[in-house]
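tokens incoming
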């Protein structure tokens, strides 16, 4: 057995902000690719051209990172130490200049989908899939007012900050899917998913009221934190007043305790009887969630706390200086927001359903060219809409190429692509829904950042189904 002792409180939020600048989702660009073996993830009615097996881990790896802020929002060249950088908290940095560089809400999203095993085969009058994958989602949302408060002047007066959130979830998904042709024109599909929770953490500043004056900083915060992990016993260490000071996590290697179910459903309709080359489709995926058990819960009390304010955090030196500043950053938050022990909870958390509606038109005079329009709406903690227009070229039966443009609700206009090689016995694919980034030499985003990529290798099996 192994023990770890970790600090908690709103330092959790700071750890994410410092460590992350990034969310993965299934690649929408592959929706209209006939040779794709992954499109059933978007709509269970969409049938691959052959049966297949995936290589463990290498079968499919999807990573998505999105942020509407970057390094340049928080690090600046020092005026007193030319050639060196300092943080936005430095007294050198003008508050108005800093605030104008920020969006109304700074959003950072990251997700990872990794296939562990996938099998597709024809049986029971249709096409079937069996798969297991690991999924991770990280989301951060911080309103502009929070950063303004951190740089508050002694004469600033009152602040009201709401809806600061950090959320992290990791789970295993085991699924069984089936698509079935009902008529010559209509194909329907469904997928049942068994979900095994690995780890969950959620920290929320529901509301923070502060009065900043020359006499004192008085803060009253409504904050909640929840965390749990499968196979781990979490023990809270509290003061005599009930304030949570530390958490000890003991790994017991026990069975899964947090589980749940979800399902997908979809349909594809060939409208060639009305318009030659036209098909329409729709799906809803990830309907359901995980019941997380034995959640450690910490909450603030309705009390005023006198706070000394934030330090300037002039990070100008080497690695040791950076560690010291981050530690002080955490301490400042813990002094301002005090979490107290609350009863443990069991809570069902939905994984976030996604609705997709698509239409594809294959040119009657060139059946290797098609255009498609896909509308996506994602529900849940981070709502998202997208309209993606694709041009798909399939010059041979074993090669597909697609370029597309998407208009998104959160990250503006992005360009995507798909390259898919699928001769008999081998499938290699690379796809992205969009890459939007300005990177420094260390490959760290310096401004708003958006990218996702799907890559993998699969082994097609058997004859073509169409």
């Amino acid at each position: 057995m192994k023990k770890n002792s970790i600090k908690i409180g709103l330092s959790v939020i700071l750890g994410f902000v410092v460590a992350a600048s990034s969310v993965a989702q299934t690649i929408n660009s592959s929706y209209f690719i006939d040779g794709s073996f992954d499109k059933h993830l978007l709509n269970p009615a969409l049938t691959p051209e052959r049966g297949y097996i995936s290589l463990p881990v290498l079968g499919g790896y999807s990573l998505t990172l999105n942020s509407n802020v970057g390094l340049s929002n928080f690090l600046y060249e020092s005026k007193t130490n030319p050639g060196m950088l300092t943080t936005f908290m430095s007294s050198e940095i003008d508050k108005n200049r800093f605030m104008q560089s920020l969006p109304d809400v700074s959003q950072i999203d990251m997700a990872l989908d990794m296939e562990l095993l996938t099998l597709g085969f024809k049986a029971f009058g249709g096409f079937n899939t069996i798969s297991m994958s690991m999924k991770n989602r990280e989301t951060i949302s911080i309103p502009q007012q929070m950063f303004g408060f951190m740089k508050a002047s002694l004469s600033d007066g009152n602040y009201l900050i709401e809806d600061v959130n950090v959320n992290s979830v990791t789970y295993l998904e085991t699924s069984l899917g089936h698509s079935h042709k009902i008529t010559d024109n209509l194909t329907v599909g469904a997928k049942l998913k068994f979900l095994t929770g690995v780890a969950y953490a959620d920290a929320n500043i529901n509301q923070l009221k502060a009065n900043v004056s020359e006499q004192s900083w008085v803060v009253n915060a409504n904050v909640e934190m929840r965390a749990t992990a499968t196979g781990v016993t979490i023990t809270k260490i509290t003061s005599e007043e009930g304030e949570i000071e530390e958490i000890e996590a003991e790994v017991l290697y026990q069975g899964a305790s947090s589980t749940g179910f979800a399902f997908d459903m979809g349909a594809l309709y060939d409208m060639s009887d009305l318009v030659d080359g036209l098909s329409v489709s729709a799906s809803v995926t990830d309907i359901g969630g995980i019941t997380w058990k034995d959640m450690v819960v910490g909450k603030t009390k309705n009390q005023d706390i006198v706070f000394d304010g934030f330090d300037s955090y002039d990070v100008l030196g080497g690695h040791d200086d950076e560690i010291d500043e981050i530690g002080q950053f955490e301490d400042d938050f813990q002094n301002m927001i005090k979490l107290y022990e609350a009863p443990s909870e069991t809570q069902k958390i939905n994984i976030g359903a996604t609705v997709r509606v698509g239409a594809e038109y294959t040119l009657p005079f060139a059946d290797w060219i098609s255009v498609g329009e896909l509308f996506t709406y994602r529900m849940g903690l981070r709502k998202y809409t997208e309209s993606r227009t694709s041009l798909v070229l399939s010059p041979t039966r074993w090669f597909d190429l697609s370029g597309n443009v998407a208009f998104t609700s959160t990250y503006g206009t992005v360009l995507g692509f798909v390259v898919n090689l699928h001769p008999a016995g081998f499938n290699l694919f690379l796809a992205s829904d969009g890459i939007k980034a300005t990177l420094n030499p260390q490959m760290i985003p310096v401004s708003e950042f958006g990218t996702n990529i799907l890559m993998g290798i699969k082994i097609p099996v058997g004859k073509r189904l169409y």
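note: Confidence is low (pLDDT under 50) at residues 1-25, 318-323.
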